[in-house]
Pirin N-terminal domain-containing protein
Amino acid sequence: MRTVLHKAENRGFANHGWLQANHSFSFANYFDKDKVQFGALRVLNDDVIAPKMGFGTHPHDNMEIITIPLSGVLKHRDNMHQNWQQVLPGEVQVMSAGTGVQHSEINGSPKEHLSLFQIWIIPNKQNVEPRYGQKTFPEAARKNKLQTLVTSIDEIHEESLKIHQDAIISRIDLDEGKTFEYQLKSKNHGVYLMTIFGKVTVENQNLEARDAMGISETELFSITANQDSGLLFIEVPMK
């Protein structure tokens, strides 16, 4: 088993006033040669956006973009939709940028801050037709069991959103004292594990809120919750 530990306090950080951004990997003005990507996972940003603020219209291409709101109200608009799309906590949004999209993302609340994860995964197909997806994933469905959010468009898994990559994004909420074994899909995959909240032990390594660990070259690994905890798994090809 190969592991890499990314402590929360060692992430890249940018304070733009209206945006507080934590970068697990090199992004914008933050660069760390040892944190460029984890396999096909290129970006994991942990953002807090002030009320009524956000990102104006900007382009993307040939990237799979997944957004997971944690609190507040996200509003999204792109050139595939004329109207704003509201994305709430408990929902997940995916966008295959493909040949190119223009989109905007703003905090849809006049009073509350918006907290979200944004994930970029390098696709396994270039210049595909852009597409958008959004789905609700009930909190109760990940209580002490794995809840799959995103899978490959080439797989039959009707309950998940789809992207152009052999990747799996999932969540679990573990009660204190519970142990869970994560089984990887392939020996060529790795898993980037983010502790959303709580405290866990992963293969004798203690992780606290927003700590992360990249795990590869193994078939499975074990997690024990030292208190009630929420975990995000991003499983991707390593080559």
User: Anything to note?
Assistant: The chain is about 0% helix and 55% strand. The chain has a mean pLDDT of 96. The first strand starts at residue 2 and ends at 6.
